[in-house]
Amino acid sequence: MLSEFELIARHFARSPWGESHGVALGVGDDCALLTPRAGCQLVVSVDTSVAEVHFPADAPPAAIGHRALAVALSDLAAMGAAPRWCLMALTLPAVDDGWLGEFASGFHALCEQSGVALVGGDVTRGQLAISVTVHGEVPVGAALTRHAACPDEVLAVTGTLGGACAGLKAWQAGERDLAQPLLASYLLPQPRLAAGQALRGLASAAIDLSDGLLPDLGHLCEASGVGADLDAAALPLADGLVAALGEEGARQAALAGGDDYELLVSLPSSAWDVARTRLAALGLTLTAVGSCSATPGVRGVAAVDGWQHFPGGKP
Amino acid sequence: MLSEFELIARHFARSPWGESHGVALGVGDDCALLTPRAGCQLVVSVDTSVAEVHFPADAPPAAIGHRALAVALSDLAAMGAAPRWCLMALTLPAVDDGWLGEFASGFHALCEQSGVALVGGDVTRGQLAISVTVHGEVPVGAALTRHAACPDEVLAVTGTLGGACAGLKAWQAGERDLAQPLLASYLLPQPRLAAGQALRGLASAAIDLSDGLLPDLGHLCEASGVGADLDAAALPLADGLVAALGEEGARQAALAGGDDYELLVSLPSSAWDVARTRLAALGLTLTAVGSCSATPGVRGVAAVDGWQHFPGGKP
Hints:
The structure is a homodimer. By secondary structure, chain A is α+β, with helices and mostly antiparallel strands.
C-alpha cells in the first residue's frame, strides 16, 4: 500500500509549469507559492464532484479527472478569467494505482490544454469525490459577473444545449463509447474559457450553465434584478438530441437538463455582431435565445419537469 | 428542504470583509474576485477533513467547523503567511439546519479570529467531508519552506506535543467536555499563524505537525537533505499527558500522535534568542528538541508504534 505522500508524488507532482507561469513553489511543501500578475484581480472558485451524484462511479477514470477539472474551470470561463492554477482535494475509497494513473492523465491533459498548473492537493480516504479549486486572473475591473444584466439586452448561449442530459441517459442505457457525441457532452465537457475571455468588454453579465438554462437564467436575473423573455424555438439543440429524446424531451433537456457547461450571457445589441464574430473565430456559435426585461420572471416557456431551483415565478 | 443555494446564502454568505480586505466580490457569483497585495506572493493550500477519518462524526458541529479551517490554516502558518481568504467545499449526507448553523458559527468564529474572509464554496450531497482551500500572502521571497534546513541548526517546536492524541483517546473513552484541555487540543487546534509570521527571517525551514513529530521531521529532513538528532527527553509534553497516557504512551503521543498542529522549525543558533523572545511575546513557548545533521536519518528515539510514513531509516 502506497502512502498518501507517495500517491501524490507519483501521479500529481509532475508539472511542466514553473516561474514563467507564476509558480514559485508547486506541489510538495505545506503550500504552493504563486506570483500574481500585476494589474490583475484573482478569480477563485471551488467545485466538488461526488461519485453517483455528479458522475457515474464506473465512468472511465480519465473522464472523471477531466470532468472534475472542467466543471471548476467553467466558473472561471463565466467570469472571463484566464486560468492559471488549480488545487485538487481527492477523496478515494481505496488505492488503485491503475485507476489513479488514468484519472491523473485525464486531469493533467485538461490542465495542459487549458494552461492551468496543478500546484497543490490533498488525498484522503472516503467516498470517491474530487474537489477542485481553480484560480484565474482578469485585468482589474474586467471580470464578467451575474449582476449587471440590463433590460432589453440580448440573452445568448454559446454552443448547444441538452447534449449532456442526453449523454447521461445514454450512459444509463449502457452506451460506453466516448466517441459518441452526446455521451462526450456529458463526460467530457469543454469549459468555454476562450469564449469567456473573448466576451470581456462585450457582455454585461455571464453565468455558466451547470444547473440548466432555466435555473441558471434565474440566478442571473435575480442577481441583476431583471426578468427575461425566452424564445423557446430559438434554443440551439445539440446534434442528435431530438432523435435521442424526442421533441418534448429535447426541449426539457435544453431548458433544464443541466451539465452543459456552456455560457449564458447578456449583452447589448450593439455588441452582438462583434461577439458573434469573436466566437466564430474560436469555432463556437453564439445563439440569441431571448432578451432581458424590466418585468420580473421568465416568460416564453411552459413549465418543465424535474427542475426545482429556479427562484422566480414559473410562467 | 432548502436548496443548495439557500443553504449557502443562509449560513455562509455573511462576511464582514470587503474591499479593504481585498474582497472585490465575495460569495454568490460563479467565482470570487480578490485583489492581491503588491509585493506579495500568494500562498495556497487545501485540506480535506472526512468524518470518521479526521474527526468523529458526532463531534460538536462548531468544533468540526473550527477544526476543518484550523488544519488548513496551519499550512499557511508553516509558510509564515498572513491569512487572507478561504473557500469551503462542504459535502453533507443530509440537510440539518441546526447542525449547519452551529458548524458555520465555529467556522466563522475562526475566520474572524484569524482575519480570513470566506469568499466562496460549494455544497454537495454525500459522506460528511469539508475541504477548505486557504489563501495567504507573504512578501516576495520571505516564505518559510521545508527545503532549506541546514546541518547544525536547532530543531524546535512551538507549544506542546501529544495533547491531540490524548484528546482523541479521551473522546473515544466518552469525554465530551470541550473545556477539558486535552480534548480541546484535539477538537479545537489553534493554527500558529502569528508564530509562523514571527519566525520569518529567523527560521530557515518550517513544517506544521499534522502527522506527528517524527513523520513530519522526516518530511522536513528529506526535503532539506539533512538528518536529525532528537533529544527525546526535551520534548515539551502537553500538560496532563503523562497522567492520561503513562510515560511510554506520552512519549509515543508526542513523537507520533499527530494532529497537534504546532510548528517544527529549523533555525541557526544565532537566531534562537530572538525567536524565543518573539514567540514569548505571543504567549507561546519555543522548545529546542534536537539539531539537524549532515548524516541522514533520525537518531535519539527508539522505534515508535503505529507510525508508517517516515521515509528515512528508523534508528
